Amino acid sequence: MGNYKYIQSYTRIYRQVTRFHIIVQSSFQIYFAQGQDRPNHLQFKIEGIMFKEIQHPFTPQTAEVPGYVPNVIPLWQIFACYLVPLCVICLLVIFGLRHDQYGKKFGLNERVFFVWFAISGFTHICVEIPFTLGQASMAWRGDIWSEIWKEYSKADSRYILAQSTTVAIEIMTAWILGPMCLMVVWLHYKRNTTRYVLELIIAVSHLYGTTVYYLEEHLSGYEHVPVDNPKYMWLYFGVFNSPWLIFPVLIIIRNWLLLSHCQAVYDVMIAKREQLRNEKKKH
Q1: Residue 127 predicted with pLDDT over 80
Q2: Per-residue pLDDT tens for 172-195?
Q3: One GO cellular component from the entry (predicted)?
Q4: Tag placement on the chain: N or C end, fewer CB within 10 Å?
């Protein structure tokens, strides 16, 4: 039967066996054993009865996902749990952040970037931080955050497998860039002089992290992505991550031009100041 893995002290857990769900509402012990017929099948034992666990849907099929429990929340509810608060945040930013604390109105391009920073901050803090905290037990948990990531892992199994590089990128993004995204919106409202520098730092960090995320999978031959499934390959893996490539590039270009202009103005001021000093010395 192989080696058993021991899990205890859970108060509520469910297991789907064929067409039924097993719900255990007291402390229990579950022993997992490697199945003999298929490498990605597991067996678990409850009160002496052996059950075969459902085959996981992740790529590659030979990957081991101990304790995997399929999602029970409908797909539309999973999307709604993410998109509804996201839309509320976008509306609050669009209609609530029209001008700074001095009453000066923000331009359309600034407000578009505010929306993106708000979306990024919400995603990093409310979705990715739970992943960094619970990625080790995500396979068998049934909370909304785990089910969001199990659904996305169908497009990129590096998350359900807790691949080290992916987890490291998510830790940096969630815990550092998430708060920074919200901070930069506040700095714009306060007209703080560091706002464009912070924007540039966030944009470069996002561009670097997303590039590494894509490039690593490309160099591995897309072994974790179902390339034959357009929904997971192009929608989940491609489109859903593309804003973190597109917007950072736009922000870098804008801030490059803006800061270059500021530096040019500063250089002219310094030159005029030196000219005035030289004229005073002559007199």
Answers
A1: yes
A2: 999 999 999 999 999 999 999 999
A3: endoplasmic reticulum
A4: C
**Residue 282 CA: distances (Å) to CA of 105, 205, 269, 271, 273:** 46, 50, 20, 17, 15
pTM (2 decimals)? 0.78
